[in-house]
Each structure stands twice: as structure tokens, then as C-alpha cells.
């Protein structure tokens, strides 16, 4: 064996003989390295931590002065160090401070920093002999001249510190004495006690119990748990056959008839691994009593101590140990669920400090007391904007309600209310009634829990400034600050109640510009838009089957219709008398009076009921995408100022001009060219007027015969002449239907419309025109030329009869290209005469058409896709039961993008 191999074996043997120290460090903590200069702190940090986790005072000194040994820059250097460390801790990152830290003053600043961010401070001391430190400094060119007295001073300060580190506030102190311990030490990061993100459930989270053992047993039975009893018949465990885990939010004891029985059952479940439990303020007080501390026997503690006195010492000791071991809160299910007793703001999730524990046990108060002498709770849940759902108890409320992704499960069982559990991730509530009033409440139960139903749901900070919205279908989408400001103006001044505005429709891109020339009677000019381009675009995207839907000339409408007032109040928190909403694509109400809106909703509700959609779709509400007609119903101002003005001007000018030219021609003046051009212009103006008039008609009293302005005709209906053409059910309770094939969507809509006819026939008014209008459609195979030709012919017939055009959509929704990008959800192809309204009376003239065909669609297409993705995100968040601010974040972003500059004619 070679000498080199012998030396290697000797080193390995020496390594094995060294004292091995394992240093546990919480995965979120502030680690403070303590040691004299030259003790090897930087080497130790580099060996055991990531480079990004370590903040060195020398490095910070170099940042501010270009010289790591410039002691004059130490003040600024430590300012930088503390700033960086604070940012890392705020972001939830393990942070290591590499400095001498031998003075108590410098350590005190770091302990304060850890407390500010609610993390544990950990000290690792490198106690290395003075000679070793001196030799190491001498070996470094930048410290070769360091006076020996500096090392000696550091060593003295270190000696004075060793006995006081825990008293200073360090939760863990690891002292490594000598080089061998330093070199053989192993740092092991350990999971915080409250970090159970690896447990994904499913869970059954049980609200406050307060000694109501019988109701708890009944509730566990309802949840599917099988109780296990001891030889005395007492429940000592409960297991779910499907492996579900119960989670108790605390307040197991006090006020109720059998606190020991509740403790026995819950402790058995926790011990068997069938349950988790966090402490409530009542357990905290009981734990202090069992330790012999002086506490007031109020709020039900007297009853609990009396009940425990009937138990043996072993049981009481077991209870004390159980309470002592409870963790303030748990972070579960990948960080998506937080369970605690009194609620917890996001900044405290997964943190560890006395402040966090206090909030989790007691919540926060405003410092005021109510008329019953009880503290007024600070409504933290109203401002909550975290991604994790927070489930808690503590403050009794008549029923459990979600607010901002938080829910209070204390429904006052001990006061005669109910005991409530939440199934997670199903978000399903299960409750059982109290067997009796076990304890008279100090004040009546009311929805005053933090985040109660009357809490403030939205906040300005949710929408102002530049926003980045995460979407499932298109990743991160940015909203510019100036666009947010424009949307805020519209939303705050004109929009309907945000609780009734869970969706806004996206803009729609037109088909590619056509080069098709017109034939037949439309011999002059050609087409700006033609179905051939729409079919070709989808064929290029790999979409074979598309559905061509008639494009109604009206105004885009979003309709939210609830089954009744109770369903509206339950699902959307709206006041009595409101059963839904009917709004424009910018969130404004269509009708000025609520009664007209309710009449529309009532008609749709009756149709849905007759069609059996409430039962079939298992929902209490429907969200519809539709078109409300006539166009003049909402666009009167636009018609008068823009379109009618052009028609009136041409009607006033052209007859006189043509008469003068014809008179001149009769006198032998050669004005044939000018006369022909003016006649063409007059014909174009007349065609323009005819085009927009097709989409305007009288409604209400005028439509029913009172159009002379003298008043409504007998039996006039405010909805006479109004037509609503729904073409998609966007969402129902607990489900987004945006992914349903368009043919299936239209089949559901057809049933709604047919139901209206059946209702009219039953009422004896079958000949009366209904509110709901059908949407004609045709399915086209983009790879079959005969099918494409049929689609083009269908469009030509549709537009020849005065129709606006059609929208071409993939039959299957949510289609993606091969590279994963979303395909346009719809492409509009507008008729030749309708485009005359948009581009002007003379747009079909060859010289104008050549200019108009140079149009840029890229921005419009991008805008359509982004708004589509945001709309889908809003529907998904609504279906998932996310808080209103999360749904409205996406809805608001759609409106904000609408203010992006883009050609309004596209």
C-alpha cells in the first residue's frame, strides 16, 4: 500500500474519532455566528449554508467602502447587513449573519430583527483558542498586521457572553469548543413544528366544542368517523375509513357538560394519528391552572376544574402534557390551508414567536369594549388577502361564512347553536344542532366574528397601480398603472354592486383582412372581412370543427340570475329584493330602474325552472353571456351624435345638390362625371342610414302602441320589443362551464328558449314574441371545401337579410395550439353592409378599401386573448369559492385592458 493511501486512511480514521456534533437549525430562522476574528466563521458558513443564505459583515463593509477591513465603514456596513437580513426574513428565507457578534449590543440588534419578523434567533458559537485565531489572521495578507490585542478583546467579550446567550433571547444556542468540534459539526435544518405542508389531507376541521362531547360524537359520525370506546363505554378515538384527518381549532373545554370526555376523545385521536389539534385560549388558561398558576375561574373554567376533579391524577397529568405540547397554528396542504384558533394574518403564517402565538390564541382587539363589557375584535379578516385559506373559531357567530378566504367555524354549540365542521378541500360545511343551551351567552350571537358577513370585501389596494395577475391559462398578465386608473374611474362611479359582477366578457378580434372582391349586385369594391379568412385561421391552428354563430346586433350583456332572493343572499351576500344582475360589458347596469332588471331575471328564472336546469346543473344561480337588443336600447347617445347625424346631414344636402346638378345637365352643361359621383355618394349615404336603422326599434310602451308619445298603450309591457339572445352559460354554483363545447352550450340555451314558448302557450299568449331570442348556427369542417363553401353561403345569406354577420368559434372550448398557446376563442366576421356603419358610408369604394385593408390586427388579437384568459381566471376563482377580491382582481383587469389604445373599429 502506498504512503499516500496510508495518509488517507489515517485522516479518515481521525475524522471518525472526532466528536460529532449535530446542530439543529429551524428552516426559517436567523442564525447568528459568534466568534473572534479568525475563528473560522466564514469557512464554517460556506461549508454548511448556501452562499445566498450568508450575509457577511466584511462583504457589506466592502460594498460601502470598497475595503472589507475599513472599520470606519462598519456603521454603514451593518445598516446594509440588517436591511438585507430583514428583506430575507420577510420573504421567509433562512438567514445567516457572519460577523464577530461578540458584543451583546450587536447581538441585541439581531435579536430585535428576528422578533420583528417573528422568526427564531439561533446562536452558533465558535470558541477557538486565541493562538489559532492569531495564526489564521497572520496567514491572510489583508489581516497580517492585525494587533493581537484585538483578538484578545474578542475572546474576553466572548467569554462574558457564553453564559447569557439564552437570556438575551436566543432560542437555540450551539457552542462549539475547539477546532475539532467546529470541523466535525453538522448543521441540520429542521421543519418548524407548525409546518405541516407535506400533509395534504383530506381534512375535517371542527370548530369550537366547549365540552359538548355528545354533539362532537354526533358530528364525527356525520363526517363518517367510527368511534372507538374503552371498557367503560367512553369514546377514546375515532378513525375515518377513507383516511381523512380531523383537525380541531381549539376551545375543547369550558362551559359545556363534559370537558374531560372531549379531551379524552381528542387526545386519543391525536395520539393515534387520526387528528391534529391547535390550542384555544381556554386550553391555554386550563394549562396554566394545571401547572399551579393563579388564574381566575371565569368563562367556564370553574365547571371544567370541577369536572376534572372527578378524574384521576394520571388523566389530569396527561391533559397538562397534551396542552403543553399544542402548537399555535398549522400550515397544511402545501401552504394552502392554515388552521388556528382565533385567526392569523398572512404575515404570521408559519412564523414562530410569542406575538404569533398570542394572535393565534386570542386574536387582536381594537382596545374598545362593547356594551356587554367584552373586547371589540379587530376585523383582521376584512383586510386579509392571503392565498392560504384560514380556518379558525374563537368568536361565536350564528353561521359559518367565507370572507376573503377565511372562515370562522365557532357557531356557538355550547350556547344552543350548532357545532360545525369544514370538509377540506371540498369546502363543504357539515353541522349538527346543540342538544340544548348548555351555557347562557353574555351577549346574543351575531355575525361579528372577524370577517363577518358585513365586513368590507374590497380594498383600493387590490386594484390600484401596476398589477400582475396570475392566470391558469396564460400565466402572468400585466395591467399598466394608467389602465388601472381608467378602470377605477368606471368601476367606482358607474358599475353595479361588485358582488354581482363576477365576470366581464373579453373583446373579440376580427378575422384577417380579406382580399375577396364582391360579386353580383355588390360589384363595386369588395370585402374587408370574409369567412374564408376565419376558416383558414382556425385550420392553420389545427382546429377542424368550428361553429358559426349568428352575431346579434345589440349590446353585450352579462346576466347573473339566482333561483330566488335567498339564493342570491346566500351566494353573493346581496340585500333582500335582489335576485341577480344584468350589466354591460363594462359592468354598468343596463336599465336605470331595478324593477325592469328584475322582470328580465324573473323571465329567465322561470324558463330555467321549466327547462329543469336548476336541478340538472345542481345550482342556485346561472351566469350567462348574452346579447341584449335592440342596439338602440343602450346606444341612443351614440346613434344620435354619430350615426343619425351623418344620415340627417346627407338627407339634407344630397337632394338639393343632385337637383342642382340635374338642372345644369338639362341645360346642356357637362356635369355627368360629377353628377354620377354625387349619385353614388347619395346611394352610399342611404345605405348607411338603412344599415344602422335595422338595429333600432321601439321598446316598451312605444312598441306596444304608445309610440306617439301620449302614453303607454293598455297592457304595455316594459319589455315589449326587448330581446335577449343568450349564447353561453359561463358558470353555475361550484363550476365553471367555460370549457363546455359550444354545441352543448347552445343546446342548453335552446332549452331555455323553448321553455319560454311553453310558458307562453300555457298562459294563452303563444303568439306573443318572447324575450329570449335564439342564436342560429352552423357547424363547419375547416378541412372540407364543401363545408367551407356552405359556411360562406350561410354567411352571405345571413348578411344579405340584414344580419350583422357571425362569430366563428372552435366547437371545443379552451383549444390550444401545438406550442401550448391559446387559440382565439372566437373570431368575428362582420357583413359588408354592417361594416358601412363602422367605417363610413363610402368605405367600399376601391380607393378607400385599398387603404382600409392595411390594418394591423396584432394588438387586437393579443388583447382579446389576454382578456379571455382573465375572464376564465375569474370564472375559475368564482367556481373555487375564492374571496370576492380575488375574483374581482381578474374582472377589474379585463376592464383595465379595455382602456389600452387600439383601433376601435376592429
TrEMBL record:
Record keyword Zinc present: no
Gene Ontology cellular component list: cytoplasm
MF annotations from Gene Ontology: kinase activity; phosphatase activity
Segments forming a coiled coil: none
What are the entry keywords? Kinase, Transferase
Q: Where is the composition biased (Basic and acidic residues)?
A: 7-17
Q: Does the keyword Transferase apply?
A: yes
Q: Give start and end of each Calcineurin-like phosphoesterase domain.
A: 202-397
Checking InterPro entries in the record gives: Ap4A_hydrolase, Calcineurin-like_PHP, Metallo-depent_PP-like, MPP_PrpE-like, P-loop_NTPase, PNKP_bac, PNKP_ligase_dom
- According to the entry, every stretch annotated as the Polynucleotide kinase-phosphatase ligase domain falls at 486-901
Q: Which Gene3D superfamilies match?
A: 3.60.21.10, DNA ligase/mRNA capping enzyme (3.30.470.30), P-loop containing nucleotide triphosphate hydrolases (3.40.50.300)
What SUPFAM superfamilies does UniProt report for this protein, alphabetically?
DNA ligase/mRNA capping enzyme, catalytic domain, Metallo-dependent phosphatases, P-loop containing nucleoside triphosphate hydrolases
Q: For the region Disordered, what residue ranges are annotated?
A: 1-20
Q: What is this protein called?
A: Polynucleotide kinase-phosphatase
The organism named in the record is Streptomyces piniterrae
Cite the source lineage: Bacteria, Bacillati, Actinomycetota, Actinomycetes, Kitasatosporales
